[in-house]
Design goal:
It is a single-pass type II membrane protein. The protein is α/β, with parallel strands linked by helices. Helices cover 47% and strands 16% of the residues. It has three domains: 92 residues; 248 residues, Alpha-Beta Complex (Spore Coat Polysaccharide Biosynthesis Protein SpsA, Chain A); 88 residues, 2,3-Dihydroxybiphenyl 1,2-Dioxygenase, domain 1.
């Protein structure tokens, strides 16, 4: 073989090897580039994972810090609760101690009033002045216990000026411009205005001024020297015995010839009025259904008593001098002018009034009625005159009672089947003192558990 042919044959394999090497080099470079790209991608992912892990770690630390703070607050709150519980325990112990010492009626060293006293006025300035002066005569030493109010119905300038001339009372004015519509022709509109005024005044004293008790006087009354002591003792009775609806300072049969003992009090089914005290609890019940007129007669209805009774004295603690007024002087000369106003100083704080509690009183009253000598037949006044000691006279019905009452000269009026001053149908009064006369209803002895002799 020629040398040039041999060289040509050798050049062909060398050329193929170069192409192969070049292809391998390109493949290698491509692989390296892919590896580099893959490594970069993985590196970015690792970096992102590390960053996420660091973020999670930071968040975890923040949560741990917050939990620690909350735990600290919980511990602080628990400590505060323990401290407050200790303070509450100390305060409870202090309150009990104050109650034990009888100081629960003191608030910031200011005495809680026993009752507000309100004088109901309208257009009688001279009467009002007399009543205010009578109250101030005995109220001065107990003014903090019995703050005085004057409530005027209407705009009479003399009454307003007179009330405002006193600096130791609070003046209230009821201006009512709503027309009055009477239920029956011929009725006096005055009774409708009076009922509106009473409701307005008592709502104000109980709900605006927040008194627990109120004593109501009218602008034609004088009070006895022991008026305030009497009502303070009566306030305790009201608190103890919920069967007492109100306490009055008046006795309808309190004329001089029919009374004797200033220390004696009675329970009555008949509302006396004319200087009386009631509680806020009772007013809560009465206010929503207060009548349009004739409020005092309305209070005497049995349906409003709900089995409750009233406390009244034998000797009046108020005197009514109002001959001229809305009632046009009815009964004044016969029944009001001769009333005896108590003038005996009674230390009511030292008196034991537990006999007036319902269960005690039923036994007490039954016993004194039982001991009275029964009188029957005609001429009972003459027969009673000849008997020493208490006398018991039974009446058959209302007309029979009225006959006997007129013979003695006592009130013979009834309201809703109840004689004035009666307790279980029994009317008691003195006759040629100190003898007591008991006018006993047909069912009274049975109600008192007494067997007639």
């Amino acid at each position: 073989m020629l040398p040039e042919n041999r060289n040509r044959k050798m050049a062909i394999p060398i050329c193929d090897i170069r192409w192969l090497l070049l292809a391998a080099a390109v493949a290698f470079i491509f692989i390296q580039m892919r590896l580099f790209a893959t490594q970069s991608e993985y590196a970015d992912r690792v970096a992102a994972a590390v960053e996420a892990e660091n973020h999670c770690t930071n968040q975890m630390r923040l949560l741990i810090d917050q939990i620690s703070m909350q735990q600290g607050r919980i511990v602080a709150l628990e400590d505060e609760k323990k401290r407050r519980d200790e303070e509450c325990g100390q305060l409870k112990a202090l309150v009990k101690d104050l109650e034990r010492r009888g100081l629960e009626r003191l608030v910031d060293k200011v005495q809680v009033p026993v009752a507000a006293v309100v004088i109901m006025a309208c257009n009688r300035a001279n009467y009002l002045e007399r009543t205010i002066n009578s109250v101030f005569k005995y109220q001065g030493s107990v003014a903090s216990k019995y703050p005085l109010f004057v409530s005027q119905d209407g705009s009479n300038p003399q009454v307003k000026s007179k009330a405002l001339s006193y600096d130791k009372l609070t003046y209230m004015q009821h201006l009512d411009f709503e027309p009055v519509h009477v239920d029956n022709p011929g009725e006096l509109t005055a009774y409708y205005k009076i009922a509106r005024h009473y409701k307005w005044a008592l709502d104000n004293l109980f709900y605006k001024h927040n008194f627990s008790r109120v004593i109501i006087l009218e602008d034609d009354m004088e009070i006895a020297p022991d008026f305030f002591d009497y009502f303070e003792a009566a306030a305790d009775l009201l608190d103890k015995d919920k069967s007492i609806m109100a306490v009055s300072s008046w006795n309808d049969n309190g004329q001089k010839q029919f009374v004797h003992d200033p220390y004696v009090l009675y329970r009555s089914d008949f509302f006396p009025g004319l200087g009386w005290m009631l509680t806020r609890t009772t007013w809560d019940e009465l206010s929503p259904k207060w009548p349009k007129a004739y409020w005092d007669d309305w209070l005497r209805l049995k349906e409003n008593h709900k089995g409750r009774q009233f406390i009244r004295p034998e000797v009046c603690r108020t005197y009514n001098f109002g001959e001229h007024g809305s009632s046009l002087g009815q009964f004044f000369q016969q029944y009001l002018a001769p009333i005896k106003l108590n003038d005996v100083p009674v230390d009511w704080k030292s008196r034991d009034l537990s006999y007036l509690i319902k269960d005690n009183y039923e036994k007490y009253f039954a016993e004194i009625v039982k001991k009275a000598t029964p009188v029957h037949g005609e001429n009972v006044v003459l027969k009673a005159h000849d008997i020493e000691g208490d006398v018991r006279i039974e009446y058959k019905d209302q007309s029979h009672f009225e006959i006997i009452a007129r013979q003695f000269g006592i009130f013979n009026e009834w309201k809703d089947g109840i004689p004035r001053t009666a307790y279980k149908g029994v009317v008691v009064f003195r006759y040629q003192t100190p003898r007591r006369i008991f006018l006993v209803g047909p069912d009274s002895l049975r109600q008192l558990g007494i067997k007639d002799r």
